[in-house]
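Supplementary Note 3. Input sequence used for the single-chain structure prediction.
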Amino acid sequence: MMRAIIIDDEVNNIDNLRALLEKYCPEVDILGTALNADSAEELIARISPDLLFLDIQMPEKNGFELLKSLSNYHFEVIFVTGFDQYGIQAIRFSAIDYLLKPISHTELQAAVKRAEDKIGSKKQNAQLENLMKLLIDERRTTEHRIGLSSAKETRFVKTSEIVRCLAENNYTLFFLKDGEQILVSRPMFEFDELLSGYGFLRCHHSHLVNRAFIKSLIKEDSGYLLMEGGFKVPVSRLKKDYIRLALR
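The predicted structure, written as discrete structure tokens, is reproduced below.
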């Protein structure tokens, strides 16, 4: 059984989530609930849960501020929010699960299963640590790390160390500047959106490149990007004008 706490400022939301968990996720044992961050902090210290269901937007102190006030993260978190803007980019960047209200029971089951797979080692939660750094250091984008989840682990890699990405069906292959390759079980379009603010350009439906590693734009052979190290990345016909303007 996973020892869990629900933190939300609305009683109806707590009752709804509890009912969904009881029906669809019997492996979750709800040991307590909290209506605000202060009472949640005390509850976390007393119960030492395996899993938090945490609302992002709460009065006085939001979910992120609650996490910042804690000294360690020996638990998993599934964020719950009624909208998909505030902080969602940072959450996705850190490969952390979140659910949008109204909660889908199938998405809830999937998120709980992923949390269950991580629980057991009782190690510090690196994904939450990365999220806190992102929220605190928003301007230092060259130091930001993105969580890349493979079959065995979630690796945290600086965006400045990623040379390019290659789409392989529903997977994305990351090429790092030291020559390492990481295969991630998420489609390219998700990373296109996440990395757009970090100097990455989608030059082809199968290719996403870090402009810092682009050596030149070659016009011959239908057009391609010559990367540092000599690798050639094709530029699609529809992307030619976009790439040309982006590299000015």
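The chain has two domains: 2-135, 145-246. DSSP finds eight helices and 15 strands in the chain.
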